[in-house]
Amino acid sequence: MNTTFRTLMGACALAALAAGASAETITVATVNNGDMIRMQGLMDDFYAKHPDIEVEWVTLEENVLRQRVTQDVATKGGQFDVMTIGTYEVPIWGERGWLVSLNDLPDSYDIDDILPAIRDGLTVDDELYAAPFYGESSMVMYRTDLMEKAGLTMPEAPTWDFIKEAAAAMTDKEGEVYGICLRGKAGWGENMAFLTAMSNSFGAKWFDMDWKPQFDSEEWKATLDFYLDLMNNYGPPGASGNGFNENLSLFQTGKCGMWIDATVAASFVTNPNDSSVADSVGFALAPDNGLGKRGNWLWAWNLGIPAGTQKIDAAKAFVEWATSKEYTALVASKEGWANVPPGTRQSLYMNEEYQKVPFAKMTLESILSADPQHPTVDEVPYVGVQFVAIPEFQGLGTAVGQQFSAALAGQMSAEQALDNAQKLTEREMMKAGYIK
Description:
The longest helix has 21 residues, at 2-22. The radius of gyration is 23 Å and the shape is globular. Helix 18 (393-408) packs antiparallel against helix 19. It has two domains: 2-135 and 299-355, D-Maltodextrin-Binding Protein, domain 2, CATH 3.40.190.10; 138-297 and 382-431, D-Maltodextrin-Binding Protein, domain 2 (3-Layer(aba) Sandwich), CATH 3.40.190.10. Helices cover 44% and strands 14% of the residues. By secondary structure, the protein is α/β, with parallel strands linked by helices.
């Protein structure tokens, strides 16, 4: 009996060793945000379903991540098997053949369930080149108690004039409460994400149909003047150094009357474990100027597979798991519905439990109101709401963002910042061959 038992145990051990030896290891590069960190804590579910795959994580700050994955995908370096990439990169890289098509994901994955607004931005010539992990737009988050104290009522779809009126009424600088917090930190994905989306609602645009830069237009002047006026009079000190995380902290500690930023922030500002104002937060659509465009953006963090990988099947198995309906249900069971990755699937917004989440409806409405194919009031030659989907935009957006951040810091006038933006953008577009 003992001999038989030992023989069986030995066989099991050998089988386990063989399985371990044959396990394929994939490397996943990801951004260091809360949703991705949470996923790393839920990997037991993946391993239970895929015992033959091991996952190694490379978790990086956003700017470093972009640099590393761009270098790897462009050279087909094969350093990563799955990459976390944004809506900006996917169509450019897909068109260049740098990403693996995901059109052959199984029927059970239900590609048609992905929100069209998000899916369209990840598709080139009917090929899906990345799967969305979470999607977002931007919206107004505001303190309901301060709004009531000011004697005002936030409309569901406010104008910029109302935002200015409310910011003035809610500002109490002596009490360290500022009427509005907005991004001021330089970067194409920082202050320029906000300002480009805002400029759309003012009738501005980056380029005309001949790719001539438009920072010398009245519409851009109106955008920047309004932004600087808001921030200088009703914003927090040091705003030129504030990005998403800094403003999140300010809002959570009760120092902001309003904050216009990513819809994904809603779960953080309403979480009583992190936010001192969690029980008095309201939501509204991003503002407009009556021109038919709201000042909100459209973005998704997605999982893509670089063409340089030698492990496509294992990479696809991971992407399918991480962006599936089942993963959403897993997060809900562990963390509650308010903390599931938002903004990607229609079925989530039809779920009765998720509909009880206070920001669910406004998030969906914000996403659906953004139109990357027609982002501006006038016709333009590019797509993208808070970015221009050309390879040169990363450098251009950051360079322009530095000018506008300097204007916010009082280092130059709005006129000088716009003049600098016009000249540097013209120079780069001539160098790249868009204009002569």
